[in-house]
Request: fold
Amino acid sequence: MAVTYIFGHKNPDTDSVCSAIALSYLKNELGEKTIPKVIGNINKETRFVLDYFKIDLPSYLNDVKVRIKNIRFNRKAYINEYSSIHQAFKLMQKENITAIPLVNANKNLTGYVTLKELAKYLINGDKEKINTTLNNILEVLEANVITKASDLIEGKILVAGMKSKAFKDTIDLSGEEILIVGDRYRILDYAIESQVKLIILPLNSKIEDKLIKRAEKNKVTIIETPLDSYQISHKILLSNYIKSINTNMHPITVNTEDYYSDFKQMLHKINHTNYPVINKKGECVGLIRLTGPNSYEKQKVILVDHNNLDQSVDGIEEAEILEIIDHHNLGAIGTTIPINFISKPVGCTSTMIYEMFLDKNVDIPKEMAGLMLSAILSDTLSLTSPTTTDDDKFAAIKLAKIAKVDMDKYGRQMLKAASSIKDMSFEEALLNDFKVFNMDKKMIGISQIMTMDIEYIEENKDKFIEILNKMCNREYYMVAIFITDVIKNGSYVLYNTSSENIIRDSFGLKSVKEGLFLPKIVSRKKQMLPSIMSTIEGDNI
Reply:
Protein backbone atom coordinates (compact mmCIF):
# COMPACT_ATOMS: atom_id res chain seq x y z
CA MET A 1 0.00 0.00 0.00
CA ALA A 2 1.43 3.37 -1.04
CA VAL A 3 1.94 5.83 1.79
CA THR A 4 -0.03 9.08 1.88
CA TYR A 5 1.47 12.25 3.31
CA ILE A 6 -0.74 14.56 5.36
CA PHE A 7 0.42 18.13 5.94
CA GLY A 8 -0.68 21.69 6.53
CA HIS A 9 0.56 24.93 5.01
CA LYS A 10 3.97 26.58 4.87
CA ASN A 11 4.87 28.54 8.00
CA PRO A 12 2.91 25.92 9.94
CA ASP A 13 0.85 27.00 12.92
CA THR A 14 -0.55 24.84 15.69
CA ASP A 15 -3.73 24.00 13.79
CA SER A 16 -1.92 22.83 10.63
CA VAL A 17 0.54 20.64 12.55
CA CYS A 18 -1.90 19.18 15.08
CA SER A 19 -4.57 18.58 12.44
CA ALA A 20 -2.08 16.66 10.30
CA ILE A 21 -1.04 14.47 13.23
CA ALA A 22 -4.59 13.82 14.43
CA LEU A 23 -5.94 13.09 10.95
CA SER A 24 -3.04 10.72 10.24
CA TYR A 25 -3.83 8.85 13.47
CA LEU A 26 -7.51 8.58 12.47
CA LYS A 27 -6.70 7.39 8.93
CA ASN A 28 -4.26 4.77 10.21
CA GLU A 29 -6.84 3.50 12.72
CA LEU A 30 -9.17 3.03 9.75
CA GLY A 31 -6.61 0.84 7.97
CA GLU A 32 -4.93 3.40 5.72
CA LYS A 33 -1.19 4.07 5.58
CA THR A 34 -0.43 7.73 6.21
CA ILE A 35 2.41 9.83 7.63
CA PRO A 36 2.01 13.37 9.02
CA LYS A 37 4.52 15.90 7.71
CA VAL A 38 5.47 19.55 8.17
CA ILE A 39 6.59 21.79 5.31
CA GLY A 40 8.15 24.56 7.35
CA ASN A 41 9.63 25.45 10.74
CA ILE A 42 7.18 25.22 13.62
CA ASN A 43 6.63 28.11 16.02
CA LYS A 44 7.11 28.25 19.79
CA GLU A 45 3.46 27.60 20.54
CA THR A 46 3.35 24.42 18.46
CA ARG A 47 6.58 23.16 20.02
CA PHE A 48 5.11 23.80 23.47
CA VAL A 49 1.99 21.80 22.53
CA LEU A 50 3.94 18.83 21.17
CA ASP A 51 6.22 18.78 24.21
CA TYR A 52 3.27 19.10 26.60
CA PHE A 53 1.52 16.05 25.16
CA LYS A 54 4.79 14.19 24.41
CA ILE A 55 4.22 13.91 20.66
CA ASP A 56 7.15 13.80 18.23
CA LEU A 57 7.43 16.55 15.66
CA PRO A 58 6.51 15.19 12.20
CA SER A 59 9.42 14.95 9.78
CA TYR A 60 10.02 17.71 7.27
CA LEU A 61 8.72 17.38 3.70
CA ASN A 62 10.70 19.47 1.23
CA ASP A 63 8.56 18.83 -1.84
CA VAL A 64 6.35 16.29 -3.62
CA LYS A 65 7.85 16.74 -7.06
CA VAL A 66 8.20 13.64 -9.17
CA ARG A 67 11.75 12.31 -8.98
CA ILE A 68 13.54 9.82 -11.17
CA LYS A 69 13.08 7.19 -8.43
CA ASN A 70 9.31 7.54 -8.93
CA ILE A 71 9.59 6.77 -12.63
CA ARG A 72 9.07 3.26 -13.97
CA PHE A 73 12.47 3.05 -15.64
CA ASN A 74 14.15 -0.27 -16.52
CA ARG A 75 15.62 -1.51 -13.24
CA LYS A 76 17.13 -4.64 -14.82
CA ALA A 77 19.11 -2.86 -17.51
CA TYR A 78 22.70 -3.12 -16.28
CA ILE A 79 25.32 -5.85 -16.31
CA ASN A 80 28.59 -6.70 -14.60
CA GLU A 81 31.55 -5.54 -16.67
CA TYR A 82 33.05 -9.04 -16.55
CA SER A 83 29.98 -10.63 -18.10
CA SER A 84 30.34 -11.80 -21.69
CA ILE A 85 29.39 -9.83 -24.76
CA HIS A 86 26.93 -12.64 -25.44
CA GLN A 87 25.23 -12.18 -22.05
CA ALA A 88 25.06 -8.43 -22.56
CA PHE A 89 23.52 -8.80 -26.00
CA LYS A 90 20.91 -11.31 -24.71
CA LEU A 91 19.98 -8.91 -21.90
CA MET A 92 19.64 -6.03 -24.33
CA GLN A 93 17.34 -8.14 -26.49
CA LYS A 94 15.29 -9.29 -23.53
CA GLU A 95 14.86 -5.78 -22.13
CA ASN A 96 14.44 -4.21 -25.58
CA ILE A 97 17.17 -1.64 -25.04
CA THR A 98 19.82 -0.25 -27.36
CA ALA A 99 22.48 0.41 -24.72
CA ILE A 100 23.54 -1.09 -21.42
CA PRO A 101 25.40 0.32 -18.38
CA LEU A 102 28.37 -1.68 -17.06
CA VAL A 103 28.96 -2.05 -13.32
CA ASN A 104 31.62 -3.51 -11.03
CA ALA A 105 31.06 -5.89 -8.12
CA ASN A 106 29.82 -2.98 -5.98
CA LYS A 107 27.34 -1.94 -8.67
CA ASN A 108 29.30 1.26 -9.36
CA LEU A 109 29.00 2.44 -12.94
CA THR A 110 32.17 1.69 -14.92
CA GLY A 111 31.01 2.20 -18.49
CA TYR A 112 28.31 2.11 -21.09
CA VAL A 113 28.00 0.10 -24.33
CA THR A 114 25.57 0.73 -27.18
CA LEU A 115 24.38 -1.69 -29.85
CA LYS A 116 26.24 0.42 -32.39
CA GLU A 117 29.53 -0.05 -30.54
CA LEU A 118 28.85 -3.77 -30.15
CA ALA A 119 28.22 -4.18 -33.89
CA LYS A 120 31.34 -2.20 -34.73
CA TYR A 121 33.40 -4.46 -32.50
CA LEU A 122 32.03 -7.64 -34.07
CA ILE A 123 32.84 -6.31 -37.55
CA ASN A 124 36.18 -4.59 -36.95
CA GLY A 125 37.40 -6.02 -33.65
CA ASP A 126 40.33 -8.37 -33.10
CA LYS A 127 38.98 -11.76 -34.17
CA GLU A 128 41.78 -13.73 -32.51
CA LYS A 129 42.22 -12.27 -29.05
CA ILE A 130 40.26 -13.76 -26.13
CA ASN A 131 40.29 -12.36 -22.58
CA THR A 132 37.52 -13.74 -20.41
CA THR A 133 36.52 -16.41 -17.93
CA LEU A 134 36.15 -20.09 -18.59
CA ASN A 135 32.52 -19.88 -17.55
CA ASN A 136 31.85 -17.23 -20.20
CA ILE A 137 33.34 -19.50 -22.86
CA LEU A 138 31.32 -22.49 -21.63
CA GLU A 139 28.12 -20.45 -21.80
CA VAL A 140 28.75 -19.11 -25.31
CA LEU A 141 29.89 -22.44 -26.78
CA GLU A 142 27.39 -24.57 -24.84
CA ALA A 143 30.44 -26.53 -23.74
CA ASN A 144 31.40 -28.96 -20.96
CA VAL A 145 34.64 -29.16 -18.99
CA ILE A 146 36.90 -32.20 -19.41
CA THR A 147 39.87 -30.79 -17.49
CA LYS A 148 40.16 -27.47 -15.72
CA ALA A 149 43.36 -25.64 -14.89
CA SER A 150 42.23 -22.01 -14.60
CA ASP A 151 39.13 -19.85 -14.26
CA LEU A 152 40.64 -17.12 -16.43
CA ILE A 153 41.39 -17.57 -20.12
CA GLU A 154 43.54 -15.14 -22.08
CA GLY A 155 45.14 -15.93 -25.41
CA LYS A 156 44.81 -16.10 -29.18
CA ILE A 157 42.50 -18.40 -31.13
CA LEU A 158 44.18 -20.99 -33.30
CA VAL A 159 42.41 -23.56 -35.50
CA ALA A 160 44.37 -26.77 -36.14
CA GLY A 161 43.35 -27.17 -39.78
CA MET A 162 46.54 -28.56 -41.32
CA LYS A 163 48.10 -32.03 -41.10
CA SER A 164 49.75 -33.03 -37.85
CA LYS A 165 53.35 -33.02 -39.10
CA ALA A 166 52.95 -29.70 -40.89
CA PHE A 167 51.29 -28.22 -37.81
CA LYS A 168 54.12 -29.28 -35.52
CA ASP A 169 56.76 -28.13 -38.01
CA THR A 170 55.29 -24.71 -38.72
CA ILE A 171 53.38 -23.72 -35.54
CA ASP A 172 55.46 -22.86 -32.52
CA LEU A 173 53.09 -23.08 -29.55
CA SER A 174 53.95 -20.61 -26.82
CA GLY A 175 51.43 -21.70 -24.20
CA GLU A 176 49.08 -18.74 -24.81
CA GLU A 177 46.98 -20.40 -27.49
CA ILE A 178 43.30 -21.29 -27.47
CA LEU A 179 43.43 -24.27 -29.75
CA ILE A 180 40.42 -25.56 -31.66
CA VAL A 181 41.22 -29.16 -32.62
CA GLY A 182 39.30 -32.41 -33.18
CA ASP A 183 40.26 -36.01 -32.44
CA ARG A 184 43.86 -35.65 -33.62
CA TYR A 185 46.17 -37.39 -31.21
CA ARG A 186 49.51 -35.90 -32.32
CA ILE A 187 48.33 -32.31 -32.31
CA LEU A 188 46.59 -32.83 -28.97
CA ASP A 189 49.74 -34.38 -27.57
CA TYR A 190 51.86 -31.47 -28.88
CA ALA A 191 49.42 -28.89 -27.47
CA ILE A 192 49.32 -30.53 -24.04
CA GLU A 193 53.11 -30.80 -24.00
CA SER A 194 53.33 -27.09 -24.90
CA GLN A 195 50.87 -26.27 -22.07
CA VAL A 196 48.50 -24.24 -24.21
CA LYS A 197 45.92 -22.12 -22.40
CA LEU A 198 42.83 -23.99 -23.65
CA ILE A 199 41.90 -26.84 -25.95
CA ILE A 200 38.41 -26.82 -27.48
CA LEU A 201 37.11 -30.08 -28.94
CA PRO A 202 34.50 -29.44 -31.67
CA LEU A 203 31.55 -31.77 -32.29
CA ASN A 204 32.16 -33.32 -28.86
CA SER A 205 35.21 -35.11 -30.21
CA LYS A 206 36.63 -37.88 -28.05
CA ILE A 207 40.00 -37.67 -26.35
CA GLU A 208 41.95 -40.57 -24.92
CA ASP A 209 42.20 -40.96 -21.18
CA LYS A 210 45.98 -40.85 -21.15
CA LEU A 211 45.87 -37.43 -22.84
CA ILE A 212 43.36 -36.23 -20.26
CA LYS A 213 45.70 -37.35 -17.47
CA ARG A 214 48.63 -35.57 -19.07
CA ALA A 215 46.55 -32.44 -19.52
CA GLU A 216 45.66 -32.48 -15.82
CA LYS A 217 49.33 -32.91 -14.96
CA ASN A 218 50.43 -30.10 -17.28
CA LYS A 219 47.58 -27.84 -16.17
CA VAL A 220 45.88 -27.60 -19.52
CA THR A 221 42.16 -26.87 -19.68
CA ILE A 222 40.12 -28.95 -22.14
CA ILE A 223 36.46 -28.47 -23.03
CA GLU A 224 34.09 -30.12 -25.52
CA THR A 225 31.27 -28.50 -27.48
CA PRO A 226 28.64 -29.72 -29.98
CA LEU A 227 29.58 -26.80 -32.30
CA ASP A 228 31.89 -27.29 -35.28
CA SER A 229 35.21 -25.48 -35.72
CA TYR A 230 33.73 -22.72 -37.89
CA GLN A 231 30.98 -21.99 -35.38
CA ILE A 232 33.43 -22.01 -32.49
CA SER A 233 35.87 -19.61 -34.16
CA HIS A 234 33.10 -17.11 -34.80
CA LYS A 235 31.10 -17.44 -31.59
CA ILE A 236 33.96 -17.55 -29.10
CA LEU A 237 34.54 -13.85 -29.68
CA LEU A 238 31.23 -13.26 -27.87
CA SER A 239 32.70 -14.74 -24.70
CA ASN A 240 35.02 -11.74 -24.23
CA TYR A 241 34.25 -9.38 -21.36
CA ILE A 242 31.69 -6.77 -22.31
CA LYS A 243 34.11 -4.23 -20.82
CA SER A 244 36.51 -4.99 -23.68
CA ILE A 245 34.39 -2.83 -25.99
CA ASN A 246 33.68 -0.12 -23.43
CA THR A 247 34.55 3.20 -25.06
CA ASN A 248 32.46 5.40 -22.76
CA MET A 249 33.62 5.14 -19.15
CA HIS A 250 31.90 8.36 -18.05
CA PRO A 251 28.44 8.44 -19.63
CA ILE A 252 25.88 11.13 -18.81
CA THR A 253 23.78 9.82 -15.93
CA VAL A 254 20.73 10.81 -13.89
CA ASN A 255 20.29 10.36 -10.17
CA THR A 256 17.28 8.76 -8.55
CA GLU A 257 16.87 11.95 -6.49
CA ASP A 258 16.84 14.22 -9.55
CA TYR A 259 13.56 15.89 -10.42
CA TYR A 260 11.82 14.41 -13.45
CA SER A 261 11.09 17.94 -14.70
CA ASP A 262 14.84 18.70 -14.70
CA PHE A 263 15.50 15.46 -16.59
CA LYS A 264 13.01 16.45 -19.28
CA GLN A 265 14.67 19.84 -19.61
CA MET A 266 18.06 18.15 -19.99
CA LEU A 267 16.70 16.08 -22.87
CA HIS A 268 16.31 19.25 -24.93
CA LYS A 269 20.03 19.96 -24.58
CA ILE A 270 21.49 16.44 -24.83
CA ASN A 271 20.35 14.31 -27.72
CA HIS A 272 20.82 10.90 -26.13
CA THR A 273 18.34 8.03 -26.01
CA ASN A 274 19.48 6.17 -22.88
CA TYR A 275 20.74 7.36 -19.51
CA PRO A 276 22.12 5.16 -16.70
CA VAL A 277 20.35 5.80 -13.39
CA ILE A 278 22.47 6.19 -10.23
CA ASN A 279 21.12 6.11 -6.66
CA LYS A 280 22.37 8.19 -3.74
CA LYS A 281 24.78 5.39 -2.77
CA GLY A 282 26.47 5.73 -6.14
CA GLU A 283 25.09 2.43 -7.40
CA CYS A 284 23.75 1.96 -10.92
CA VAL A 285 20.15 0.82 -10.61
CA GLY A 286 19.00 0.74 -14.22
CA LEU A 287 18.44 2.69 -17.40
CA ILE A 288 15.95 5.39 -18.29
CA ARG A 289 15.05 5.82 -21.94
CA LEU A 290 13.97 8.92 -23.78
CA THR A 291 11.60 6.79 -25.86
CA GLY A 292 10.34 4.66 -22.98
CA PRO A 293 6.90 4.97 -21.37
CA ASN A 294 8.43 6.57 -18.25
CA SER A 295 5.12 6.37 -16.40
CA TYR A 296 5.08 7.11 -12.70
CA GLU A 297 2.91 7.03 -9.63
CA LYS A 298 2.28 10.43 -8.12
CA GLN A 299 2.84 11.00 -4.42
CA LYS A 300 -0.52 10.74 -2.66
CA VAL A 301 -1.26 13.64 -0.31
CA ILE A 302 -3.99 14.99 1.94
CA LEU A 303 -4.03 18.72 2.68
CA VAL A 304 -5.23 20.18 5.96
CA ASP A 305 -5.77 23.81 6.95
CA HIS A 306 -5.11 25.17 3.45
CA ASN A 307 -6.28 24.85 -0.13
CA ASN A 308 -4.10 27.43 -1.85
CA LEU A 309 -1.17 26.57 -4.15
CA ASP A 310 1.01 29.35 -2.76
CA GLN A 311 0.64 28.01 0.77
CA SER A 312 1.25 24.35 -0.04
CA VAL A 313 4.35 22.25 -0.51
CA ASP A 314 6.57 22.73 -3.54
CA GLY A 315 5.54 20.49 -6.42
CA ILE A 316 1.94 20.10 -5.23
CA GLU A 317 0.80 20.31 -8.86
CA GLU A 318 2.72 17.05 -9.51
CA ALA A 319 1.11 15.17 -6.61
CA GLU A 320 -2.18 13.31 -6.38
CA ILE A 321 -4.39 15.15 -3.91
CA LEU A 322 -6.77 12.67 -2.32
CA GLU A 323 -8.53 14.94 0.13
CA ILE A 324 -8.61 18.51 1.45
CA ILE A 325 -9.89 19.44 4.90
CA ASP A 326 -9.94 23.17 5.50
CA HIS A 327 -11.85 26.03 7.09
CA HIS A 328 -10.51 28.87 4.93
CA ASN A 329 -11.86 30.53 1.81
CA LEU A 330 -11.39 28.58 -1.42
CA GLY A 331 -8.00 29.02 -3.04
CA ALA A 332 -6.50 28.05 -6.37
CA ILE A 333 -5.73 24.36 -6.01
CA GLY A 334 -7.25 22.27 -8.80
CA THR A 335 -7.39 18.51 -9.24
CA THR A 336 -7.75 16.32 -12.31
CA ILE A 337 -10.26 13.99 -10.63
CA PRO A 338 -13.02 14.51 -8.04
CA ILE A 339 -11.74 14.40 -4.46
CA ASN A 340 -13.17 14.48 -0.96
CA PHE A 341 -13.18 18.20 -0.12
CA ILE A 342 -14.40 19.00 3.38
CA SER A 343 -14.88 22.70 4.02
CA LYS A 344 -16.82 24.20 6.88
CA PRO A 345 -17.09 27.74 8.31
CA VAL A 346 -15.61 26.93 11.70
CA GLY A 347 -12.74 28.54 13.57
CA CYS A 348 -10.33 25.65 13.27
CA THR A 349 -9.57 22.63 11.07
CA SER A 350 -9.20 20.42 14.14
CA THR A 351 -12.86 21.03 14.95
CA MET A 352 -13.70 19.28 11.69
CA ILE A 353 -11.27 16.44 12.39
CA TYR A 354 -12.82 15.95 15.84
CA GLU A 355 -16.17 15.53 14.09
CA MET A 356 -14.58 12.97 11.74
CA PHE A 357 -13.49 10.91 14.78
CA LEU A 358 -17.10 10.95 15.97
CA ASP A 359 -18.45 10.11 12.51
CA LYS A 360 -16.08 7.13 12.15
CA ASN A 361 -16.71 6.05 15.77
CA VAL A 362 -12.97 5.99 16.56
CA ASP A 363 -11.88 6.51 20.16
CA ILE A 364 -9.77 9.62 20.74
CA PRO A 365 -6.62 9.07 22.85
CA LYS A 366 -5.69 11.68 25.43
CA GLU A 367 -2.74 12.92 23.36
CA MET A 368 -4.76 13.36 20.17
CA ALA A 369 -7.48 15.16 22.14
CA GLY A 370 -4.83 17.48 23.55
CA LEU A 371 -3.47 18.30 20.11
CA MET A 372 -6.89 19.07 18.64
CA LEU A 373 -7.86 21.16 21.69
CA SER A 374 -4.60 23.13 21.36
CA ALA A 375 -5.31 23.82 17.70
CA ILE A 376 -8.82 25.11 18.46
CA LEU A 377 -7.61 27.36 21.29
CA SER A 378 -4.81 28.69 19.08
CA ASP A 379 -6.95 29.44 16.02
CA THR A 380 -9.84 30.97 18.01
CA LEU A 381 -7.71 32.90 20.52
CA SER A 382 -9.04 30.75 23.34
CA LEU A 383 -12.57 30.90 21.87
CA THR A 384 -12.66 34.73 21.80
CA SER A 385 -12.11 35.29 18.06
CA PRO A 386 -15.10 36.27 15.89
CA THR A 387 -14.34 33.15 13.86
CA THR A 388 -15.33 30.99 16.84
CA THR A 389 -18.48 28.92 16.29
CA ASP A 390 -20.63 26.81 18.57
CA ASP A 391 -19.03 23.76 16.94
CA ASP A 392 -15.59 24.98 18.05
CA LYS A 393 -16.78 25.55 21.60
CA PHE A 394 -18.48 22.14 21.77
CA ALA A 395 -15.40 20.36 20.44
CA ALA A 396 -13.06 22.25 22.79
CA ILE A 397 -15.11 21.34 25.87
CA LYS A 398 -15.26 17.66 24.91
CA LEU A 399 -11.58 17.47 23.97
CA ALA A 400 -10.45 19.23 27.17
CA LYS A 401 -12.28 16.58 29.15
CA ILE A 402 -10.60 13.73 27.24
CA ALA A 403 -7.20 15.45 27.48
CA LYS A 404 -7.77 16.07 31.21
CA VAL A 405 -6.72 19.72 31.15
CA ASP A 406 -8.25 22.95 32.49
CA MET A 407 -9.02 24.73 29.22
CA ASP A 408 -8.60 28.31 30.50
CA LYS A 409 -5.41 27.59 32.42
CA TYR A 410 -3.91 25.60 29.57
CA GLY A 411 -4.85 28.33 27.06
CA ARG A 412 -2.92 30.91 29.09
CA GLN A 413 0.10 28.57 29.22
CA MET A 414 0.02 28.27 25.44
CA LEU A 415 -0.19 32.02 24.97
CA LYS A 416 2.69 32.65 27.35
CA ALA A 417 4.85 30.06 25.58
CA ALA A 418 4.13 31.55 22.17
CA SER A 419 4.03 35.27 22.85
CA SER A 420 7.65 36.33 23.30
CA ILE A 421 9.48 37.44 20.16
CA LYS A 422 12.48 39.10 21.77
CA ASP A 423 14.79 36.21 20.96
CA MET A 424 13.80 36.28 17.27
CA SER A 425 15.27 38.36 14.48
CA PHE A 426 12.89 40.90 12.93
CA GLU A 427 12.60 38.69 9.81
CA GLU A 428 11.86 35.61 11.94
CA ALA A 429 9.15 37.41 13.87
CA LEU A 430 7.56 38.68 10.67
CA LEU A 431 7.65 35.35 8.87
CA ASN A 432 6.69 33.21 11.85
CA ASP A 433 3.00 33.27 10.86
CA PHE A 434 3.12 34.79 7.40
CA LYS A 435 0.64 33.92 4.65
CA VAL A 436 0.64 34.85 0.99
CA PHE A 437 -2.48 35.50 -1.10
CA ASN A 438 -2.75 36.14 -4.84
CA MET A 439 -5.29 38.61 -6.19
CA ASP A 440 -5.39 39.09 -9.93
CA LYS A 441 -1.61 38.64 -10.20
CA LYS A 442 -1.05 40.89 -7.17
CA MET A 443 0.70 39.17 -4.29
CA ILE A 444 -0.36 40.15 -0.77
CA GLY A 445 1.45 39.11 2.40
CA ILE A 446 -0.19 39.23 5.83
CA SER A 447 1.74 38.39 8.99
CA GLN A 448 0.02 37.95 12.33
CA ILE A 449 1.99 38.05 15.58
CA MET A 450 0.36 37.01 18.84
CA THR A 451 2.51 38.56 21.55
CA MET A 452 2.61 40.40 24.83
CA ASP A 453 5.80 42.21 23.74
CA ILE A 454 3.89 45.21 22.39
CA GLU A 455 6.46 47.74 23.65
CA TYR A 456 9.28 45.84 21.94
CA ILE A 457 7.49 46.09 18.60
CA GLU A 458 6.72 49.79 19.15
CA GLU A 459 10.39 50.47 19.88
CA ASN A 460 11.48 48.65 16.71
CA LYS A 461 8.62 49.41 14.35
CA ASP A 462 10.90 51.35 11.96
CA LYS A 463 12.97 48.21 11.40
CA PHE A 464 9.84 46.17 10.71
CA ILE A 465 8.59 48.79 8.25
CA GLU A 466 11.96 48.80 6.50
CA ILE A 467 11.65 45.05 5.92
CA LEU A 468 8.07 45.44 4.64
CA ASN A 469 9.15 48.09 2.17
CA LYS A 470 11.97 45.91 0.85
CA MET A 471 9.56 43.01 0.37
CA CYS A 472 7.23 45.20 -1.67
CA ASN A 473 10.07 46.52 -3.79
CA ARG A 474 10.95 42.92 -4.69
CA GLU A 475 7.71 41.08 -5.34
CA TYR A 476 4.72 42.01 -3.15
CA TYR A 477 1.93 44.45 -3.94
CA MET A 478 1.38 45.06 -0.23
CA VAL A 479 2.55 43.55 3.06
CA ALA A 480 1.18 44.14 6.55
CA ILE A 481 1.86 42.89 10.07
CA PHE A 482 -1.00 42.63 12.57
CA ILE A 483 0.26 42.39 16.17
CA THR A 484 -2.66 40.87 18.04
CA ASP A 485 -3.19 41.65 21.73
CA VAL A 486 -5.50 38.96 23.09
CA ILE A 487 -6.01 40.83 26.38
CA LYS A 488 -7.10 44.08 24.67
CA ASN A 489 -8.98 42.12 21.95
CA GLY A 490 -7.50 43.96 19.01
CA SER A 491 -4.44 44.32 16.78
CA TYR A 492 -1.77 46.90 16.04
CA VAL A 493 -0.95 47.23 12.36
CA LEU A 494 2.30 47.93 10.51
CA TYR A 495 2.40 48.12 6.71
CA ASN A 496 4.64 49.00 3.78
CA THR A 497 4.60 52.75 3.30
CA SER A 498 2.83 52.79 -0.07
CA SER A 499 -0.12 50.81 1.36
CA GLU A 500 -1.30 53.52 3.74
CA ASN A 501 -4.46 54.22 1.74
CA ILE A 502 -5.28 50.50 1.51
CA ILE A 503 -5.13 50.13 5.31
CA ARG A 504 -7.15 53.32 5.82
CA ASP A 505 -9.92 52.33 3.42
CA SER A 506 -9.94 48.67 4.48
CA PHE A 507 -10.87 49.47 8.07
CA GLY A 508 -12.95 52.62 7.48
CA LEU A 509 -10.47 55.01 9.12
CA LYS A 510 -10.31 58.78 8.64
CA SER A 511 -6.58 58.71 9.10
CA VAL A 512 -3.98 56.04 9.67
CA LYS A 513 -0.45 55.76 11.01
CA GLU A 514 2.04 52.98 11.55
CA GLY A 515 1.32 51.02 14.73
CA LEU A 516 -2.32 52.11 14.94
CA PHE A 517 -4.48 49.91 17.21
CA LEU A 518 -7.57 48.39 15.56
CA PRO A 519 -10.12 47.36 18.21
CA LYS A 520 -11.74 43.94 17.82
CA ILE A 521 -9.64 43.12 14.72
CA VAL A 522 -8.14 39.75 15.65
CA SER A 523 -8.94 37.36 12.80
CA ARG A 524 -6.84 37.27 9.64
CA LYS A 525 -9.35 35.00 7.90
CA LYS A 526 -12.57 36.87 8.73
CA GLN A 527 -11.45 40.46 9.26
CA MET A 528 -7.99 41.40 7.99
CA LEU A 529 -7.85 39.56 4.67
CA PRO A 530 -11.48 40.14 3.52
CA SER A 531 -11.25 43.88 4.26
CA ILE A 532 -7.95 44.29 2.40
CA MET A 533 -9.11 42.17 -0.55
CA SER A 534 -12.32 44.18 -0.83
CA THR A 535 -10.35 47.44 -0.96
CA ILE A 536 -7.91 46.21 -3.58
CA GLU A 537 -10.71 44.75 -5.70
CA GLY A 538 -12.55 48.06 -5.46
CA ASP A 539 -9.47 49.89 -6.70
CA ASN A 540 -9.44 47.61 -9.75
CA ILE A 541 -13.07 48.32 -10.76
About this structure: Residues 524-540 form the longest helix (17 residues). The chain has 19 helices and 23 strands.
